[in-house]
């Protein structure tokens, strides 16, 4: 008889949960990704043409951010990233042979040349920029049709320090120079596999000049007159609250898993 496991079952960027937003129990399959070994938790994609089981629903992962605690969300985030990584590494990037999953590690191994492929995260810097004691720079993403204003963010380039990435992204996106770049905290972000590294920096010089394909508007806002900001649970929200209300960005009270 098969044993039952809690399962993260994804369909694109949605997760299958019950009416209380908890994970279902399922029979394990040989193709499951074993996850969090201590608790017998598995992860898989909803099979092609598989109907949604009675009593379960597909919920966007972003929505779970607001319903779950950080630890639960980070587990789901880890599960989807590992599944995506496995799907995208079916072949050896060195010789092109079909790969096999390592029996105990998160690695895809090539049986022909023994090349090992491991999951990688993309470091991405996100910066909250202040001017004086009472102003914060917020920017509207050109691709986002809502009225939400967020923070300056972008990928770290090869050979660049995190601080250089902060200065470069700020200059490219809004034409400003910043100083006193300081690290705040980090958050894994599964869209698709980023590690968001949060910094704060102070305005140094320059006039706002938008990189129009990325940013449709950017302004320094008074702390008591902010526009719509990113949703609670995102690191951008925590960073803005850190400036406006002095809340810590990282929750250091969390228990280690
Ligand atoms: Zn190979």
Outline the structure in words.
The chain has 257 residues and is of the alpha+beta class. It folds into 3 domains: 4-88, Nucleoside Triphosphate Pyrophosphohydrolase; 90-120, no CATH class; 122-245, Nucleoside Triphosphate Pyrophosphohydrolase (Alpha-Beta Complex). The protein has 4 helices and 15 strands. Strands 1, 2, 3, 4, 5 and 6 form a 6-stranded mixed sheet that branches. Strands 10, 11, 12, 13, 14 and 15 form a 6-stranded mixed sheet that branches. β10 and β11 (135-141) form a beta hairpin. Zinc ion binds at residues 92, 94-95, 97, 110, 112-113, 115. It holds the Pfam family NUDIX. InterPro entries: NAD-cap_RNA_hydrolase_NudC, NudC-like_C, Nudix_hydrolase, NUDIX_hydrolase-like_dom_sf, NUDIX_hydrolase_CS, NUDIX_hydrolase_dom, Znr_NADH_PPase. Belongs to the Nudix hydrolase family. NudC subfamily.
